[in-house]
Design goal:
The protein has 336 residues and is of the alpha+beta class. It is built from seven helices and 18 strands. It is globular, with a radius of gyration of 21 Å.
Length: 336
């Protein structure tokens, strides 16, 4: 009984804390004319490729740089937690309410090409541009170099942040520069490609307070027809399908591949007999050792337990330490 009373008290405090945040945000939205871009108690699971997660106390979808900066400045001044979201293809949201502001950049999706030379162009796109939009733009304009990213879920900002790699091509190999701002001063700056700052699944945006606004990619004008480029893109999508990428909701590869291990993480997990292992409604895919799939109604807690079990088993049997690449978005720690 005492445990139930304590839990109920924490639940009440948690809701009071959430309501205080929402009241502050509502007043801020009204005074800044942001009511149309801010929602409350927004379900997060449908917005993610994993289809996992509870509600966000506040969900904001700014339409321009000014709105984005004002929301972030407000959150920092009021000490409200926030999470900047792209295509939500690499995240696992908390099962509880995220007691803060989730800020979506999907409206930052303008895309254009700029002449660079007789044979090359720069393709500029907002951080919220989906990879599908970028690949389709390149296809229609007969630009080559992005075909291996056909079928990759998520946004340009997320792909750059993670330095996404598809079919042995990292997005950094096409990267020219990016516009970003730092949360320390909110001043837009430009970051040019410096090879030493990039590595396998490593980018200069990780472990920093930089927020990507837009990116520029150096691509070649193609001698191929639009139909030929589209056919090549389709072949990459079909290969993804053949590997089971779209059979169930997931966040793609759970663990980074470590070249020092000698084998991909999926193969190592398979060798440890873990394919098909299940916790709740989360399962290590029977068809791919490095995928965790949502069989329907899986929770973040299920995924975490499965990740922990996998890490421990691989360490026990192989002496190797797997490193996750998916991001767990936690509820506010104040009452969790």
């Amino acid at each position: 009984m005492k445990f139930l009373i304590v839990c109920k008290s924490v639940y009440i405090l948690y809701n009071i804390f959430m309501e205080e945040i929402q009241e502050k945000v509502r007043a801020f939205a009204d005074s800044n004319g942001f009511s149309q871009i801010i929602k409350f108690n927004e379900q997060m699971a449908p917005k993610t490729t994993f289809k996992i997660g509870g509600k966000a106390a506040v969900f904001a979808e700014p339409e321009d740089f000014m709105q984005l900066v004002r929301i972030l400045q407000f959150a920092r001044s009021e000490k409200i937690s926030f999470f900047v979201l792209g295509g939500a293809s690499n995240v696992v949201f908390c099962d509880e309410v995220y007691n803060g502001i989730v800020i979506s950049l999907l409206k930052f999706n303008e895309i254009a090409q700029l002449p660079l030379s007789e044979d090359e162009v720069l393709v500029s796109c907002g951080a919220g541009t989906t990879m599908a939009q970028l690949v389709n733009f390149c296809t229609k304009n007969r630009l080559e170099g992005m075909e291996p990213f056909a079928g990759l879920p998520g946004t340009v900002g997320g792909a750059l942040f993670m330095n996404a790699r598809c079919f042995d091509l990292s997005i950094s190999e096409r990267f020219h520069s990016a516009r970003f701002f730092d949360l320390d001063d909110f001043t837009p700056s430009e970051l040019n490609y410096i090879p030493e700052q990039w590595d396998y699944k490593v980018s200069p945006f990780q472990n920093s307070t930089k927020i990507i606004l837009s990116a520029f990619f150096k691509l070649k004008k193609s001698s191929k027809s639009e139909e030929e480029i589209a056919s090549l893109c389709k072949s990459f999508i079909e290969e993804r399908k053949s590997k089971g990428h779209f059979k169930y909701p997931s966040a793609g590869s759970v663990f980074k591949n470590n070249r020092d291990f000698g084998s991909p993480s999926g193969k190592i997990i398979d060798e440890c007999g873990l394919k098909g292992v299940r916790v709740g409604n989360a399962q290590i895919a029977p068809f791919h050792g490095n995928f965790i799939i949502n069989l329907g109604g899986a929770t973040q807690k299920d995924v975490k337990k499965l990740v922990e079990m996998t890490v421990n088993k691989v360490r026990e049997l192989k002496g190797l330490s797997l490193e996750t690449e998916i991001i767990f978005v936690e509820a506010d720690k104040s009452f969790n």
